[in-house]
Amino acid sequence: MAASAPCLFSVVGDWRKWKHSPIFPLVGEMSGRTEGGAKELGPNKVPVGAAQMRPSLLDPLFVPITSLAGVGPKVGPLIEKVVPADLGDRAARAGDLLFVLPHSVIDRRNRPGIAGSAEGAIVTLEVRIDRHQPPPRGNRSVPYRVYAHDDTGEIALTFFHAHAAYLEKAMPEGERVVVSGRMEWFNGRPTMVHPDHIALASEAENLPLVEPVYPLTAGLSGKVLRRAIGQALARLPVLPEWQEDEFLRRRTFPAFGDALARIHNPADPIDVSVDGAAWRRLAYDEFLAGQVSLALVRARVRRLSGRPLVGDGRFVEKLRAALPYLLTNSQEMALAEINADLGDPERMLRLLQGDVGSGKTVVALLAMARAVEAGGQAALMAPTEILARQHLATIAPLAEQAGLRIAILTGREKGRERTETLAGLAKGGIDIVVGTHALFQQTVTFHDLVLAVIDEQHRFGVHQRLAITAKGDAPDMLVMTATPIPRTLVLTAFGDMDVSKLTEKPAGRQPIRTVTLPLERLDELVGRMRDAVADGQKIYWICPLVEESEEIKLMSAEDRFASLKPLFGDRIGLVHGRMKGTEKDEAMRAFKAGETRILIATTVIEVGVDVPDATIMVIEHAERFGLAQLHQLRGRVGRGEKPSSCVLLYKNPLGETATRRLSVMRETEDGFRIAEEDLKLRGEGELLGTRQSGTPGFQVARIEAHADLLEAARDDARLILSRDPELQSERGAALRMLLYLFGRDEAVRLLRAG
Ligand code: ADP
Ligand code: MG
What we know:
Blueprint: H1 15-18, H2 26-30, H3 48-53, H4 75-82, H5 94-98, E1 104-107, E2 122-133, E3 144-150, E4 153-159, H6 164-170, E5 176-186, E6 189-193, E7 197-200, E8 210-213, H7 222-235, H8 245-251, H9 256-264, H10 277-304, H11 314-322, H12 329-343, E9 349-354, H13 360-373, E10 377-381, H14 385-402, E11 406-409, H15 415-427, E12 432-435, E13 449-455, H16 462-469, E14 476-481, H17 487-494, E15 498-502, E16 512-518, H18 522-534, E17 538-542, H19 557-568, E18 572-575, H20 581-593, E19 598-601, E20 614-620, H21 627-634, E21 644-650, H22 656-667, H23 671-682, H24 703-723, H25 730-741
Parallel strand pairs: 4-6, 9-14, 9-15, 10-12, 10-13, 11-12, 13-14, 16-21, 17-19, 17-20, 18-19, 20-21
Antiparallel strand pairs: 1-8, 2-3, 2-5, 3-4, 5-6, 5-7
Helix pairs in contact: 9-10, 10-24, 11-13, 11-14, 12-13, 17-24, 22-23
């Protein structure tokens, strides 16, 4: 089968990310069009087709920001830092500035009079200028003062390094002037240092009453940014409406342009609130753009495949017989859903969500066996090498008994072994391959990849997910995640992906007792560990990663290993990320085999590591871990018949969030509850592993505030495309503009010219 067959785009939340990826040229093929020359372009070029198809009405927004007045080579890069769009390697454009939204306002309507102005308050005062007092000649360190008064008292307006001529002109003696700025009281005397605004009272109506405050970066002044945004707004053409009038009326949403104008020129703090109608309108637009583009891609991808995979049960039955346990009801249900998808000519795009320890791997194995029965190959991709090897270790003995040919491919396989594996994959001699991102390398080709299983997907970038599916002819795809992703996030990141959930844990699992313990009481813990080791138990001890630059000296895994080694001798092992692959394997093997009883580790063992008879998990500096991570780590124990415990060792003093996290861990083992708390405490960015941005892949929308709009946008997108699949109607044409405005324009390339 061709190695460059169409790949899966519908799991992509963020078009802007992958359009710069090396596999981007596949989009051109997918749409069955050659226009745009996407194929000839290198990885980092934006295809010309995009510009050719863009409605010319939008051209004014697609100029580089450096063509705006006041934005030169120095300011440009600073502005790019505050632009919420993920620019990749393109330059920021005027249109990107529209979505640099203010986070608050300065309310200049506060006019309490001089005497009534509190220290630190932003106030606007109407005063009469009494006299100017320039600094003594030659002494620039003394400020220039302008004295003024109103009915309530006197004030000194203070200027350092002032231009006397400017101040004299702006505030002539005897004139009435409006000044606005921060009030400061010095020894009972009111002053305002460098007012933000100064205007003659006769011209004061020009002062902004409510002024937006934008996110800034060092070196970029609010004034410069406001001016640039103002120009971008002025370039915004009158656009056709892409939302239905009735919908807008019901929600009291303003038009797109009006919403932007209202946020950038607020009359009231509500105008810049994420809960205000203006912001919500834009958030809805952004969600709709995302959902329409995902739906377009999904429709294309589904149409392209169309190969039912039906098995005769010859491998699956043997595997089931070889399992030392019965599947849980959840596992059976998930498997039934997966099998139905595999047997269907439509391509499978399914998320298998299950808390740590819920037994996803065996579901994947049975699905892969079925794909092999149907005559194809399957790949299981893990985020780390340890995990890939562990999967192999669990799967290989079962697979062997069933007669499946299985291999591993990671960065470590070299030489003959690698050559043989590659040949086996290309010729079809290997049925199932387990691997890491090494599976996406160019040298890897499959004879007939029909099912790609991706484990712990939140660790993989978008590109990687796409790359593996490019290795087959639109292979079915199963994404497994242990991080319970809230429904809203599934929607934003994957569009309308089908979801199977493993809601129960395998029978016989004991609850995990979780305790918190301050580091000062380490000795007690060590005493208990001695008893536990004597009793034949196994203990994980996790240390946080230590960066060299960190001020607080933390115990690294190596230090901790050194300090415990004299007490436990040969019973203690160490594994961390900087060790060689073979050393890591050996440490894991020794622990699994019981030769070592204590394994000091960094978070390399966070996901997926499975040593069922480990019963104690110690997490040192637990206060430094996020909730999801703590939950993942804790999930390494409680996998066997014996009761398990988790000790969260923390260092005092504990901050508020850390306290909250640790108590959530004590209170519950429910992954979904923990994910919700996590969302509250950290924001959703980190859940999907995209820490940098607010809501991943979004410029305006904020999941925490706009989740209700997301579902509506999803339904709306479906309805729109069911009526107008090629966006050919008048509304469709307007929607194409929407896609361009929010950088989802790659989806437009999938459409027939409209
Ligand atoms: P995760 O969902 O975290 O990836 P694993 O697939 O690693 O979970 O499974 C965790 C452990 O549970 C493994 O040791 C596996 O063999 C075991 N297991 C899986 N399914 C069952 C079951 N139905 N009954 C008993 N044990 C099971
Ligand atoms: Mg797993």
